[in-house]
Amino acid sequence: MSEKRKIVLVGTGFVGMSMAYSFLSTGGIDELVLLDVAKEKAVGEAMDLQHGLPYARGKMEIYAGDYADCRDASIVVITAGAAQKPEETRLDLTAKNAKIMKSVVESIMASGFDGILIIASNPVDGMTYLAQKVSGLPKERVIGSGTILDTARLRYMMSEYLDVSSSNMHAYIMGEHGDSSFVPWTHAYVGSKSLLELLDEKGKPLSDLHDIYTNVQQAAYEIINRKKATFYGIGLSLNRLVHAVLDDENAILTVSAYQEGEYQQKGLYIGVPAVVNREGVREVIRLKLNEVDQAKFDSSCRTLKEINRDIIDPLL
């Protein structure tokens, strides 16, 4: 990966620009390049960000560019893609965005890019699978945003429920970034204490956990119903992932990572806890799932494998 902390963002919609804007507050980026099929929009977004640089944290070069700028980038983040229309099915959206993703990745690789690809376009697990196949990059260097935002929502809601800082909530949403995701509650901790033990001591019903998960699962629908789209949360989540890579953190994040038997499944990308550093995904963290959770994970994998087989593989 290039020593220069250069990020290229492909797609200047709400999600991409939420991430881009957040870099002004967190710093740590030397160069930020914006790409979009609507070139004038990318120019306008770059200008808008440039005008905030006097108040930003650290020096940063920001400009609108083209795919040639990917050549020496450390990371390319892809948020480009069509939004799902009310009359469209999830499969319709997958077919549409798969064609967009294929074209985008081909253009990136034509530049000579040899860094880390981060995918946030939906459906993210399938798009990450496609991006790796098209790019030919090592599987560990193609990472999907996976359930990183779902996990943040979970920890926030656990924090509100228990009145303990979210930084001390250690729990994960696993599986597809979608309706078949799940929480392995036996691996949820508050500080170093088992969440299940804590609830038992406090006399709180386990049914509350179902309510928390339901609220997490429905969060995007609730936000979209009120403001048409979600973007701040995923923008900050992508910022977190980018810095985990650039800063060589060895941070554990629930990203969409390639499966090679860690959870009895192979040949697909799906949301799991993984160690992320400058090389991408260093390793997938193996949690011992009980029978119920393993069945949920297997079901989620079947859903994704069907999409890959029926829609994505024919494009490759």
Give an overview of the whole structure.
This protein has 316 residues and is of the alpha/beta class. The chain folds into two domains: 6-144, Rossmann fold; 147-315, Lactate dehydrogenase/glycoside hydrolase, family 4, C-terminal (L-2-Hydroxyisocaproate Dehydrogenase, Chain A, domain 2). Helices cover 44% and strands 18% of the residues. The protein is built from nine helices and twelve strands. The protein has helices spanning 14-26, 39-50, 90-110, 124-135, 148-162, 195-202, 207-227, 232-246, 291-312; strands at 6-10, 31-35, 61-64, 75-78, 116-119, 142-144, 169-170, 189-190, 193-194, 251-260, 266-277, 280-284. Strands 3-2-1-4-5-6 form a six-stranded parallel beta sheet, with helices on both faces. Strands 7-8-9 form a three-stranded antiparallel beta sheet. It has a three-stranded antiparallel beta sheet with strand order 10-11-12. α2 (39-50) links the parallel β2 and β3 (61-64). α5 packs across α7 (207-227). Catalyzes the conversion of lactate to pyruvate. Keywords: Allosteric enzyme, Cytoplasm, NAD, Oxidoreductase, Phosphoprotein.
**CA(first)-CA(last) distance:** 26 Å
Strand content: 15-25%
Taking pLDDT < 50 over at least 5 consecutive residues as the criterion, the unreliable ranges are none
Number of helices: 9
CATH superfamily of the largest domain: Lactate dehydrogenase/glycoside hydrolase, family 4, C-terminal
The CATH class name of the largest domain reads Alpha Beta
The portion of residues assigned to helices is 40-55%
Overall pLDDT metric? 95
Count of discrete domains:
2
